[in-house]
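[Meeting: bench + compute handoff]

Bench side (C.D.) handed over the final construct sequence. Compute side (W.E.) agreed to return the predicted structure before the next meeting so the bench team could plan truncations. Sequence as handed over:
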Amino acid sequence: MEKSMESFTFTVGKLDAGMAILLGERAHLIEFPSVLLPPGATTGSIVNIAVHQNHAEEKRRDREFWDLQEEIMNEFGKESPEPPQLQLRNVTQTSVTLQWPPIKVAKAKIRSLDIYRNEQRLAAIPSPSTNTSTKLSGLDINTDYSFRLVLRTTAGTHSSNILRVRTHTMTDTSGIRVCFGNVQDSVLLENAKLALKEMKADWSDKIQIDTTHFVCTTPAATPSGAQAAGNATNAPGVEYQRALQLSIPVVQPHWIMACHIEKKMVPIASFYLGANAVAPAHSAGFTRPQSMSQASLTRTASSPPPNRQNTPTSQRASMPPPARSDNIVSQGSSSGFEATPEEAEVEDLQSSSPDAGKRKSRAGTMNKDFKFPSPASSPVVDAHDRSVSTSLSSAATGPAVMTPSSIEVPPPPPVEKERSLSGSVDEGDDDVGETEDIPL
């Protein structure tokens, strides 16, 4: 192999379709792409290969690489997502309205924006890229709460500041936010606005996220439409319909005046649009409505509560007493159970049989020595039980007249087969005939 300043000499030892083996000095083997060999080179050909370093191309490559890095830095590296700044917009007795500036995430993408209450995830903010406020309801009165936002993006997670809020008491009316609709009485409207100003409340002509009440005297959009029936302008106003969609209570201006007089939040049940004003619970003419069970009673407030012992049986009983089918009473025990007609018939058959004296009486038979207790010691019974006891007492003093149609006669019991009492045959053996010898 001859070595020069510009090239190296090699001998082609083996040539394949894609790779050539070049033999150099001292049996050096070099794999060289066959496509780079000169045209017509075959096995045994001698070739010179020159290798030079291209410094200009290296500088161009480095310059392109760092230009790309600078462009990426300017596009994505100088700005990063900013944590949201949570602010308090309004607070009432049971709700809190929060707001924040528009979310800035630079070139990143928003994954989620969650609201946390007392360090517990409450809900996700819908449309976080455009929504900048939220209202949280269902809170407790006069209670401390802490809120914060957590922004999750493709460039990382960012948390907002912690906002601590305490809900209002019932005497604090500064959280009232009223949207006025169509109030036909202009004097009443001005008085309501003055009352709101003294209560440190606020009002507007458009429904906002912190609006707590919609005040009007008619759902019509204009006063002329409220007066003219059948007119096209009699349709409900846009703000009135929006208040219904957002479940904002629609009340009369008298509610504002009541809150101003009472110096506290007054219940709105009696001030809804279309409802008649009801006196407060502490006024002189207020009476609590009775329940269905109390409304059916006729006793006065000064009368004592009813005594169950003095109440007649007809009023105490929830169901009428069961009807009795006959006057036969079991005297086998002092419990007073009635005997069925079938048992009475069986007992009559047993008493008329010759072995009646040997048999033992069963529970439910008649005891001739039984006597009914005197009326003074017997408990109070109603008219039906009194008629039954009278018939029973008459049956004890004399024979009762009973018609055959009033007695249900059961079918006669089956007659058992008499068994032989001889000692040669056991009671447990079956009857067999004479034996016969059969020759085998």
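W.E. noted at the follow-up: The mean pLDDT is 74. C.D. will use this when planning the next construct.
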